[in-house]
Amino acid sequence: MALFPVISNFQEDFVLLLLPVDTENTMDEVAAAAAHHSVGTRVAPRPDKIVRVRRQGASDFFPRDQRLAETGVRPMETLEFIFCDA
Amino acid sequence: MALLDRSEWYDIARTTNWTPTWVSDADLFPDVMTGAQGIPAEKWEVYDEPYKTSFPEYVSVQREKDAGAYSIKAALQRSRIFEDADPGWRSILKSHYGAIALGEYAAMSAEARMARFGRAPGMRNMATFGMMDENRHAQLQLFFPHEYCPKDRQFDWGHKAYHTNEWAAIAARHAFDDLFMARSATEIAVMLTFAFETGFTNMQFLGLAADAAEAGDYTFASLISSIQTDESRHAQIGGPALQVLIANGRKAEAQKLVDIAIARAWRIFCILTGPSMDYNTPLEHRKQSFKEFMLEWIVGQFERSLIDLGLDLPWYWDKMIAEFDYQHHAYQMGLWFWRPTLWWNPAAGVTPECRDWLEEKYPGWNDTFGKAWDVIIDNLVEGRTERTLPETLPIVCNMSQIPICAIPGNGWNVKDWPLEYEGRLYHFNSEIDRWVFEQEPERYRGHMSLVDRFLAGHILPPDLGGALAYMSLQPGEMGDDAHGYAWVDAYRDIRRAAE
Which structural domains are found in chain A, ordered by start? Predict the structure, then answer.
């Protein structure tokens, strides 16, 4: 377990945010942490959607249960958080 | 005794180049300080400053200007203009004084460098007056807000801001260090006086003086007008320097300096002036939108100055113009949301009437920025103010030191422009900011943004309270909504009517 800072670029939000997460977090947990700072703050909630995570500019999302330590994401890399159908 | 007319002696009197005998010319005028780029001294002697003045004339005119500004201040000291002004206007004053006053002292040092190391006698002469101008500007802009300190503690930041690690102060210092504190005399002439002052400050001060008069703040209007008349004189130092560079085969080098300086100046004006014009200025006092102002003055006028001098438009010109539609709206949202980190109280500027105006001036605003403001307004109406306050840091651009932001809502286009350099990952707001870094990475690589400092453990405890303490923001100084959230009532009324 290790504290791991990444950058959140959350769909429909206006700013990049510092997101402290943990290497043991799954991508669903990372998405929840990012949503905490954006959804209901400056982004309207979308209860019928889930939030998926990808590298900035990538088309494929990380598997939802993949742990951050297994993704190869670097500290302070920018991740995109995108609303998707459940 | 009859005096000669200035025109009969000026050229001879300011021909002050000489042949040194005790030291070499290179020791007296090292290229690193002059920035002459190897152009010999005699080539610089064609430098012809368009505005000429003598010391007695200068002193006489400046004395009158000072007397005018100080006497208006004294006459209006007991008026209630300050108390009666809209809180949004007071916020403009606070942000202006904090961001600009001590920057004027920095500009004084830069003018002093041109006065000593300028390769052209005319440049040295003009910069001597410019140096005294900037000293006057700093003193005026420290003295005027000082009067307000007993009424409102945030005005203390007119002097305090530059001595802190408050993020906007870091941004201002980073830009001004780059543009004029850590540059040669020739670079200062191009980057400070031509790009920054001719391009932006001169016009900004004209607009600000008009806004002040419109808001009824005649003290500030006279102060700013007084400063602007100096700016329009010493801003002319850069043009002839550019002509010498271009005539001696240094156009590419000159163009690069101009491009870097405009890119950096644009960020500062975008965050200072954009929100001031489109959000903090009360709706009834707005003459034109920030975008209209930029198109008229920067695109319409400054573009012509560039072409007339034989320069090209910066490679990013169209990209910068595209930013007129959105960047300052994003900065406004950041300023308001992270309001405890400011030394002024930002006005939200999003009443229903304001939004109609924003939609008219910036079609699509409601579908983009309006979407994010809708969520903020919902939280305020429902009493969830804590959801409208920051819990984490925004990522700050490693060039502008301003949060990386763009369009939210249905036009979402936020993007990081990263760069890995010598094993360190840097983040930039745009291709333009990243390009500036790439021109001279060794110049910028060591600087740590506020976020870098946070991650390096400089900010303790590592939370918002620790960050506010790091920025020297004391209780009573931290920003809050300028109008105490009174504007939210309009939305409550709309909700009630709908129910």
Answer: 3-85 (3.10.20.270)
